[in-house]
Specification:
Elements lengths: L1 E6 L12 E5 L4 H10 L4 E4 L3 H10 L3 E5 L16 H4 L8 E5 L3 H7 L5 E5 L4 H11 L3 E6 L2 E2 L2 E2 L1 H15 L5 H10 L16 H7 L7 E8 L2 E4 L2 E2 L1
Parallel strand pairs: 1-7, 2-6, 2-7, 3-5, 4-5
Antiparallel strand pairs: 6-10, 8-9, 10-11, 10-12
Length: about 230
């Protein structure tokens, strides 16, 4: 099995990844998605634009909108922000969650043609590695979405390191990866007065390794994409 990495915000003139692509957004899109599915949501529909997400939610039965704009502030008109701790209070059983975020969802859109596509965070790292192994992947490309001009993205790099270690049979100490999430540039913003929409409770959830027992493969639909859990 071969491995490579791409950084979402450095993609100009870089080759397309077409085999197995793991789009990582630890803080917070794909931790939020994992929490939504763990609370009984029937599916997560990733949609790039806020307006398109609101339109899709109106077309789906029993749906709810979840997401944020760049910087982490809640998306206007949405029921919930991109906050895993908020969703612990939400009634999601049987609901369709329509999600729009500035990084993770954009990454899925960018690589929607991959043969196998996964949304990943530390929450589902172990299950993701197991499903990739079962699929017989030859080349796994990790897409780091959290690196920006003012962020090192190490929370997502740590998740890639964790999944790659598991696939290679190397030690993967959860405490090491959890610490890297907390100490990343973006992680250090949580709980600070200047960032009221980045609660410490979110950081705590995002730093937990294998808090759910399923992977989040992404299916392509005629109208977009769909994430449903695949349990170990």
């Amino acid at each position: 099995m071969r491995f490579s990495r791409l950084f979402l915000n450095r993609l100009q003139d870089q080759p397309e990844a077409t085999d197995t692509v793991v789009v990582i957004d630890v803080l917070r899109s794909f931790t939020t998605a994992a929490v939504a599915l763990s609370r009984g949501a029937r599916a997560v529909y990733p949609v790039a634009a806020v307006s398109a997400a609101i339109e899709l939610a109106a077309q789906l039965d029993d749906s709810v909108t979840v997401g944020a704009i760049a910087g982490g502030d809640p998306a206007p008109g949405f029921a919930w922000g991109n906050s895993p701790s908020e969703l612990l209070q939400a009634e999601l059983a049987g609901k369709a969650v329509v999600m729009s975020t500035a990084a993770g969802v954009r990454g899925l859109q960018r690589f929607h043609r991959a043969r196998h596509l996964y949304a990943a965070s530390l929450a589902c790292a172990g299950a993701t590695a197991e499903l990739i192994r079962r699929s017989g992947a030859g080349h796994v490309c990790f897409v780091i979405t959290g690196e920006w001009v003012d962020r090192d993205g190490d929370e997502d790099i740590a998740c890639a390191d964790c999944i790659e270690a598991l696939l290679c049979g190397r030690p993967a100490d959860p405490a090491v990866f959890a610490r890297r999430v907390r100490e990343s540039d973006f992680g250090r913003r949580f709980g600070q007065p200047a960032w009221p929409n980045l609660p410490m409770a979110d950081l705590t959830l995002c730093a937990q390794v294998d808090s759910v027992d399923f992977a989040m493969p992404v299916r392509r639909l005629e109208s977009g994409m769909l994430i449903q859990p695949v349990f170990r």
